Amino acid sequence: MAIVLSDLTVNGAKGYRLSIGNEVALLESSDSRLSLPLRNINLVAFQQTRNPLFLWLAVILFVFAFLATSEPRPAIGEYEIVDWYWWVLASAIAASLYFAVQSAAVVVSSGSTRTILRGSSATMRAAFEAFQP
């Protein structure tokens, strides 16, 4: 086997290692093995992915900033909610994390099997290059 990449997520399961040889791509973990014949691969697609949780968090924090500008100031029990500018700052940080934190995915279609590999951008770029003829 020529190319070895580790710490991959395959179809939602973590802990896989990709080994690519002359005729076969082998994905193996401690309890399972997947074998993809390279001559049957129909499609290899690479895509950067972002987590929408950060974007939703930014929207929610911005709504809190809007609520903090109302009179009387909203309170939880006897504690007032923090000033509006802290909520805007937190919203800006969450929005910047949406753009800063990236992962990548490689979709490999071989015959009737579709395998989705996920990992860091650099690892997925290497996996994409490895699947090229």
What's this, in brief?
The protein has 133 residues and is α+β, with helices and mostly antiparallel strands.
How is this fold's topology laid out?
Elements: E1 3-10, E2 13-20, E3 24-28, E4 33-37, E5 41-50, H1 52-67, E6 75-76, E7 79-80, H2 84-100, E8 102-110, E9 113-119, H3 121-130
Antiparallel strand pairs: 1-2, 1-9, 2-3, 3-4, 5-8, 6-7, 8-9
Helix pairs in contact: 1-2
Choose one word for the global shape: elongated
Structural class comes to alpha+beta
Separation of the first and last Cα atoms: 15 Å
Q: Give the SSE order as H and E letters.
A: EEEEEHEEHEEH
> Quick one: biggest sheet?
7 strands, antiparallel
User: What is the total tally of β strands?
Assistant: 9
Estimate the mean pLDDT confidence: 86
Rg (CA only): 22 Å
Total count of helical runs of at least 4 residues: 3
Strand fraction: 35-45%
Helix content percent band: 25-40%
- List the uncertain runs: none
The side-by-side strand order for the widest beta sheet comes to 4-3-2-1-9-8-5
